[in-house]
Amino acid sequence: MVPGIDVSHYDGSIDWTQVAASGVRFAYIKCTEGAAFLDPEFVENWSGATESNILAGAYHFLTDADPVLQASLFRRHCPVYGLPPALDIEISSITPELVNRFLAALPGEMRMRVMPYLDAFYIDDFSELITRKVWIAHYRVLGPSPGPWPTWTFWQHSNQGSVPGIAGAVDLDWFNGTQEELEALLAKPT
Question: Is the pTM of this model over 0.90?
Answer without folding.
Answer: yes
